[in-house]
Design brief:
Layout (H helix, E strand, L loop, with lengths): L7 E2 L4 H8 L3 E5 L12 H23 L8 H11 L3 H12 L2 H10 L7 H7 L5 E4 L5 H5 L6 E3 L3 H9 L5 E3 L14 H10 L1 H13 L1 E5 L6 H14 L6 E6 L5 H11 L1 E6 L8 H23 L12 H15 L12 E4 L4 E5 L5 E5 L5 E3 L4 E4 L2 E4 H5 L1
Parallel strand pairs: 2-3, 2-6, 3-5, 4-5, 6-7, 7-8
Antiparallel strand pairs: 1-8, 9-10, 10-11, 11-12, 13-14
Helix pairs in contact: 1-13, 2-3, 2-4, 3-4, 6-13, 8-10, 10-11
């Protein structure tokens, strides 16, 4: 049996690692990340909805008049659109038939499961500066329990503020299962998203230009995503990205790989054929994410920062360096790998958190331990620790 690592072509991920360690990496999470826990992809979701709607209509007709024939031609037509891959038209026609009941269908399928998949958990271990998702479910939020900034396309100003202030946030560009008005399901919904919330789309296009994205669980066939990538590429040229995507050999051809790299600046981390196990895809993606996390940690551990005023030296860098030095000085044998917004350090019995106003707060788990601003100081067991000295 071949090793899992033998089926993965990681390629040159140094730009991605550097982006992660400098707070410039964004993860883009698609439906593939939720499928390991039983949630459907977009096509399967629509197929389930069509079958349910047809069965409910037939049941009502049979109850009203058992002898009456059931006209199923409209459902045949909708399924034809589905088979042709015209998912937005399929969803539009489905909503025309069942109205707001489609929102209940969304909740019944995506609303009850809050257990993140192994992919979500591996994503959350990497200090991305922001997480973007097309998924309605709340599995990504469950993997990031400390992140309180959760936005949809209906929150363009909050989204822009998070980009500007480099604040960690989860952004759900197709809406949230618990917020029906935010759900983007049909072609009309997409049209409204493109035109009504232009500020949101401009912010997303800017983020694609300024940050390095890692696409996980996405087939990269979303026309609106590709349009935004086109917009960023046309506006900013080779300054965009680079971006990365985890894909499988059976999803892409060599020509499509070249297209992604040339047209959109997306470098593909390619996973090969599985070994017959049902969860081999999940294991492959998790293996890639662990490899990226390990490489980022290695670079972080070996990095030396001499100028805290350098624009690339972020509060995330500062905090990681502070904690690493703190653990050495206090005799802790546990290293700090990376830091995003909050981290519990059990070996020191403290919790460290960075707040939106860039205040660094260090507390004991049972009582207040310290309170300071970045690059100042705090006391621990009678010893004064000066942040600026620790960073020097």
């Amino acid at each position: 049996m071949h090793k899992l690592s033998d089926t993965i072509r990681l390629g040159n991920v140094i730009p991605l690692i550097n982006a992660i360690n400098s707070g410039r990496a964004v993860v883009y999470v698609g439906a593939g990340a939720s499928m390991p826990v039983g949630l459907p992809d977009w096509r399967t979701f629509l197929s389930e909805c069509v079958s349910r709607a047809e069965a409910e209509e037939n049941g009502k007709k049979a109850g009203a008049n058992p002898a009456s024939p059931h006209d199923g031609s409209k459902w045949v037509f909708i399924r034809e659109r589905l088979d042709q891959g015209d998912y937005l038209i399929c969803a539009e026609m489905l909503q025309m038939e069942i109205g707001q009941a489609i929102e209940q269908y969304v909740w019944d399928i995506f609303g009850e499961n809050n257990n993140p998949s192994p992919i979500h958990r591996e994503i959350a271990r990497i200090p991305f500066s922001m997480a973007i998702t097309t998924n309605y479910d709340r599995l990504l939020e469950s993997a990031y329990p400390g992140v309180g900034n959760i936005y949809t396309w209906m929150d363009p100003l909050a989204f822009f503020s998070a980009i500007k202030k480099r604040r960690m946030a989860i952004v759900k560009i197709h809406g949230d299962v618990g917020n029906s008005p935010s759900l983007v399901l049909t072609r009309t919904h997409y049209r409204d998203l493109m035109h009504v919330s232009q500020a949101f789309n401009r912010s997303l296009a800017t983020l694609l230009a300024l940050r390095t994205f890692l696409f996980v669980g996405s087939s990269l066939r979303d026309h609106d995503l590709l349009r935004l990538l086109d917009e960023s590429k046309l506006t900013y040229g080779d300054e965009c990205g680079p971006h990365y995507a985890i894909l499988f050999e059976d999803e892409v051809s060599d020509s499509y790989l070249r297209l992604l790299e040339k047209s959109y600046g997306i470098n593909v981390i390619l996973c090969g054929e599985g070994d017959g196990r049902s969860n081999w895809r999940t294991d492959s993606v998790c293996s890639v994410l662990r490899s990226i996390s390990g490489k980022a940690s290695a670079v972080k551990d070996n990095s030396k920062y001499s100028d805290v005023d350098d624009p690339d030296f972020t509060l995330v860098d500062s905090t990681s360096r502070i904690l690493s030095t703190l653990m050495q000085k206090t005799g802790s044998d546990r290293g700090i790998v990376a830091f995003s917004s909050s981290r519990e350090i059990h070996s020191l019995n403290i919790n460290v958190e960075v707040f939106a106003n860039e205040r660094l707060e260090i507390r004991r788990t049972d009582r207040e331990f310290g309170h300071c601003k970045p690059f100042e100081y705090f006391f621990h067991e009678g010893n004064r620790y000066d942040f600026k000295t620790m960073l020097g």
